[in-house]
Amino acid sequence: MDLNSADLREVIETVWVAAVGLDVLGPEGSIPPPPLGSFCGSVQITGAYRGAVAVSLSERLARRAAGAMFDTAPESISPEDLKDALGEIANMTGGNVKALLPGPSQLSLPQVVSGTAYTVSTPGSMIVQEVAFQVMGEQILVHLLEARS
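-> structure tokens emitted (149 positions)
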């Protein structure tokens, strides 16, 4: 696999600045992890590359992102709009990552999970890249997974 953490950082910055309209700070400094009430959007990649991309963030940041995407106040975002926005962020992130990986590959529909104590796993895969970013003082954690041979 030729994707490195700098490539992944560039994808995240592109998605968040261009599509969401929020500035992203690099992983410098101490960034607290997403709190227990958080969300994870993910897409599976199949084909020449087999794996997944997962984007985790707090509900507060997910609301801010959805508000920016839908041009509405974060507190008025419905639970369905919140999941739609995070699903689209995961889809755009996965699509940009897929373009940098060996092809041809396809993306699954996005999946979004939320809660106070959940675990997201992709059986048969391992994390090959993990990058943390900061948006509005909160963490975005992105994982690139690859299926084990």
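The first helix runs from residue 5 to 20.
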